[in-house]
């Protein structure tokens, strides 16, 4: 089979596949048996001996073969010459030749017959081309698909996790606007207060309360996370408000349960140090909205997040206590796994939600400093 531009095999476009066929740097050495590069790490007197590939295993044998060599082979076959193959791949003719020779050595098969006048596929080369070209086309298609996720119009499934209260009150109401702006993105929202495993639960983006300790997670603070002890004016009129932390023991407190079992402790700052308390509770709910409803109904005191109570405080439906002991801001965060190679559906969601949530002014820094606890019963 003679190869030239007029009769080159058709049916494959490898334009996006441009492997690195440059000579290995001094730090990269060829393995003694397979020619597969491995990295010698600084500080290791002897590189760990890699196990020889098991050629009875198809996956192992495929790994041993050079992908760059296969692409070089396909380029020569489609372009009709080593020179034109090099031009297409953006490398020199000699680099194409070296990679094809390496592939032939790995396969123990001659793929081309070369003379000064022509380059021909051997029968084995023709068979290898026919077997490879569909697979390479699928690889090219897969790479194009991945590039579309990163660079193309935002589309696909976006799986979102959010803490129950924040997700219901802040995140969910914004999803209608986001869906209207990006109709090709499908949304799956999970409200859950348990510790999150991004990989196991296939989460793209998560909204979490408090600082994130996992260094592998990118955490963008959206708004401050302020905590305030609140009560309805009717409760304050009947029972007064606590003047000190010890006074909490004499009040009817309402607790929030998260993650199925854990009851949230109340946090305060005393003389510059964090202090946690768990006062005796009259009521406990596993839903922040139920806690807020009970407080608004005058059933007791609760420590709640600023995004929940800033609006009721502004309209006079709630008053605050112990503001001088308010804990430091821990933040509400939008979390994802990596800044690198971020799919466009995640990138636009992160930007949209960051801007939309910050624009709502869901914190009450000025109001939390107002302390109504001097009011006693009936005052």
From TrEMBL:
Q: Which CDD domains match?
A: PBP2_CrgA_like (cd08422)
**Domain of life where this protein originates:** Bacteria
Which keywords has UniProt assigned to this entry?
Answer: DNA-binding, Plasmid, Transcription, Transcription regulation
Q: What is a single Pfam family found in this protein's UniProt entry?
A: LysR_substrate
Show the segment(s) annotated as Disordered: 22-55
| GO MF annotation terms | DNA binding; DNA-binding transcription factor activity
Does RNA-binding count among this protein's keywords?
no
List the signal peptide residues. none
Q: Does the keyword Transcription regulation apply?
A: yes
Report the InterPro entries cross-referenced here.
Answer: LysR-type_TF_proteobact-type (IPR058163), LysR_HTH_N (IPR000847), LysR_subst-bd (IPR005119), WH-like_DNA-bd_sf (IPR036388), WH_DNA-bd_sf (IPR036390)
Its family remark reads: Belongs to the LysR transcriptional regulatory family.
Its name, as the record gives it, is Putative transcription regulator, LysR family
